[in-house]
């Protein structure tokens, strides 16, 4: 069984793999968020590069060919993480294609100056800009601001942590689909998580999924989010024709102390939670893990990377059940 390398469509490698003196403790989320902010003030560029490289080593070991990672941009990190990850991107270009999303993790309410920093990050050469619909009091305004900033440049990706709380009063996916349609951005836009979709009423579900499908946007699900909230309605979205992607999300940081970087394990977790058990469903899931982004630049970079994974076994069901290391990773950079 051969595959062209797994695709990890959402990660945070700028703040994963905690190094001493930072250690995980299972405190409430606001406490761990504060610890993350404190760490961002202190972490040096070299430390950021180290944590990112540790994550990438794990991903590469398990056959990841492409990773799209968010990189925090705010007055805490300033632009250190962007600088660090741009260097890492170049250092890894012969082993993995890495796309960088300048990300407003903390919100404009807390740090208004992030708007200026995001524009500076764009000028430095990031591949996209990202926001978080739950971090500001006015989620719609947050979406509009990120869209306005992103559309000033020639970016490949505009991404949002969308309705990550899972609360029915924190439901911005319909508005994001509306704006994506109005601006004709289509698959440049990705909605990540979309947890509230799992909890709103059936009428809202049907209307929203239809709007998302018509917009042309993509939805990325991160199965490890099940630890704190419901996953989105992956099957219903896929059945409506919405492109689905998977991501590892956080790796060994203050939000998730675990994480191997093995995309087959994340696929396995999604299969358990959302019951992708029949052979054709597992084939569909493996297809998502293997699918290239609809972007000519990335497709060319992956072609030049020329990664080929080899596994023992005869079926995708067997592959997902065991989530093994590749038997062989062949690579010939062109």
From TrEMBL:
Residues 53-267 form the Amidohydrolase domain. InterPro entries: Amidohydro_3, Metal_Hydrolase, Metallo-hydrolase_Enzymes. This is Amidohydrolase family protein. PANTHER family: BLL3847 PROTEIN, CYTOSINE DEAMINASE. SUPFAM superfamilies: Metallo-dependent hydrolases. Pfam families: Amidohydro_3. The lineage of its organism: Bacteria, Bacillati, Bacillota, Bacilli, Bacillales. It comes from the Bacteria. Gene3D superfamilies: Metal-dependent hydrolases (3.20.20.140).
């Amino acid at each position: 069984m051969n595959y062209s390398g797994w695709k990890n469509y959402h990660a945070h490698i700028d703040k994963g793999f905690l190094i001493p003196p930072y250690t995980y403790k299972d405190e409430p989320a606001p406490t761990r968020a504060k610890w993350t902010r404190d760490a961002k003030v202190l972490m040096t560029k070299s430390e950021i590069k180290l944590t990112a490289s540790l994550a990438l080593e794990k991903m590469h070991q398990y056959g990841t060919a492409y990773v799209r990672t968010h990189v925090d941009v705010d007055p805490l990190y300033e632009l250190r993480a962007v600088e660090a990850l741009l260097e890492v991107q170049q250092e890894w270009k012969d082993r993995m294609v890495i796309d960088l999303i300048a990300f407003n993790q903390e919100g404009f309410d807390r740090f208004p100056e992030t708007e200026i920093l995001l524009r500076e990050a764009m000028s430095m050469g990031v591949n996209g800009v990202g926001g978080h619909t739950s971090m500001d009091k006015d989620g719609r305004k947050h979406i509009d601001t990120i869209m306005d900033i992103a559309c000033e440049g020639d970016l490949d990706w505009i991404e949002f942590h969308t309705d990550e709380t899972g609360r029915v009063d924190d439901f911005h996916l319909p508005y994001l689909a509306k704006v994506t349609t109005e601006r004709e951005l289509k698959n440049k836009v990705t909605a990540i998580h979309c947890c509230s979709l799992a909890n709103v009423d059936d009428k809202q579900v049907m209307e929203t999924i239809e709007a998302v499908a018509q917009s042309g946007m993509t939805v990325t699900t991160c199965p490890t989010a099940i630890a704190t909230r419901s996953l989105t309605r992956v099957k219903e979205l896929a059945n409506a024709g919405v492109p689905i992607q998977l991501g590892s999300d956080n790796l060994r940081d203050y939000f998730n102390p675990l994480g191997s970087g093995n995309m087959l394990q994340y696929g396995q977790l999604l299969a358990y939670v959302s019951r992708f058990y029949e052979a054709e469903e597992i084939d569909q899931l493996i297809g998502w893990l293997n699918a290239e982004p609809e972007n000519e630049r990335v497709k060319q970079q992956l072609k030049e990377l020329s990664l080929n994974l080899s596994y023992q076994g005869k079926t995708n069901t067997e592959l997902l059940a065991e989530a093994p290391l590749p038997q062989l990773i062949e690579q010939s950079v062109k």
